[in-house]
Amino acid sequence: MIHTRTWNVEVSISEHEDERRTHAVAILRTDARPQLRGEGTSRRAPRDREVPEIGDELATARALADLAYQLLDATAADIEDITHRPVHLSS
Predict the structure, then answer these.
(1) What angle do CA 41, 44, 45 make, to 5 degrees?
(2) I want to staple 60 with a disulfide (CB 3.0 to 4.6 A). Which of 24, 34, 83, 86 is the partner?
(3) pLDDT (tens digit per residue) in 45-56
(4) What does the CA dihedral 58, 61, 65, 71 come to, rounded to 10 degrees?
(5) How confident is the model at residue 82 (pLDDT cuts 50, 70, 90)?
(6) Is 80 exceeded by the pLDDT of residue 90?
(7) Is pTM, for the whole model, over 0.85?
(8) Cβ(2)–Cβ(43) under 8 Å?
(9) Angle at CA 81, nearest 5°, toward 75 and 83?
(10) CA 66, CA 46: separation in Å to the nearest integer?
(11) Helix (H) / strand (E) containing 21
(12) Other CB atoms closer than 10 Å to residue 55's CB: what's the count?
């Protein structure tokens, strides 16, 4: 039997032009656990051309990476709760 679940990740991106900075927040929502939130930031050097898509991509990639590591930590904690043994999960 196949069980299908849908998890949703919502990414919000905010640009701070005056600081040459882009910030992204990635939120994972599931029915199984409280939401997890990853964050990432990109910064543009003063000499770089302004290309908003690059800042968006980098900040989002960092937010998703942060979210992935948090999910690995949450998974390890869940396994430890069941097995009562230390767990180390690598990415």
Answers:
(1) 135
(2) 24
(3) 888 888 889 999
(4) 140
(5) very high
(6) no
(7) yes
(8) no
(9) 100
(10) 26
(11) strand 21-29
(12) 23
User: DSSP state, 14?
Assistant: E
Contact 77, 86 (CB under 8 A): no
Residues 6 or more apart whose Cβ sits within 8 Å of residue 59: 13, 22, 23, 24, 40, 41, 42
For residues 34 and 74, is the Cβ–Cβ distance under 8 A? no
Task: For residue range 26-37, list pLDDT tens digits in order.
Answer: 999 998 889 999
- Tokens in use for 29? 């929502």
Pairing outcome for strands 21-29 and 36-43? antiparallel
